Amino acid sequence: MSAAPPKGLNEIQAALADYHASLEEPYKVTPAGMWACSRSEEVYDLLKQLDLNPYGHLADLGSGDGRVVFLASLFLPATGIEADPGLVQASRAMAQRLGLTRADFLCSDCRQEDLSPYDLLFIYPDKPLDWLVKLLPAQWRGSLLVYGPYFQPQGLTHLKTLYAGQTMCTLWQR
Ligand SMILES: C[S@@+](CC[C@H](N)C(=O)[O-])C[C@H]1O[C@@H](n2cnc3c(N)ncnc32)[C@H](O)[C@@H]1O
Prior knowledge:
The chain contains five helices and nine strands, in the order αββαβαβαββαβββ. It is α/β, with parallel strands linked by helices. The protein has one domain: Vaccinia Virus protein VP39 (Rossmann fold, 3-Layer(aba) Sandwich), CATH 3.40.50. The protein starts with 8 loop residues before the first helix and ends with a strand. Bound molecules: S-adenosylmethionine. The site of S-adenosylmethionine has 23 residues, from α3 and β4.
């Protein structure tokens, strides 16, 4: 018997809505920062606006409930790195139920991770990005996609500004 086909945007949004129905609040303080959610329809739109062909693997640095990784895995392999064990557990369970075999999750502080396997980094930052610029490997030639206008990386080259709905997002390279 063949495996179930991966689910798309509607099924991902339904799984997230079910998960959120079980929570008191859709945000919290985590072991490494603050969890708040990007908008799934905006992230999907953003991914569709980008030419993803040059990229082999996306990582979401601080993946929260896993939404960006689920959506990105519709296009390319995607890994979420998240410090909060409960969010990682929920993300893994949803990915499995949705049949998203290209989505996976590490429960870790991403400041301790080697980012060289990932050539497209996504972040919805909860703090200034100086730590991330320092962490990028010297030989890294990927792109960094920043969701939201609040924190922009210093010392990288700005490639593009994109709007996902009303949300300003920016794309950067070394
Ligand atoms: C603003 S939320 C974004 C969540 C998700 N990327 C999204 O778009 O919905 C930031 C997330 O990053 C996580 N985070 C912050 N610093 C981190 C770190 N150093 N290592 C791992 N996770 C981190 C927080 O726990 C939180 O879940």
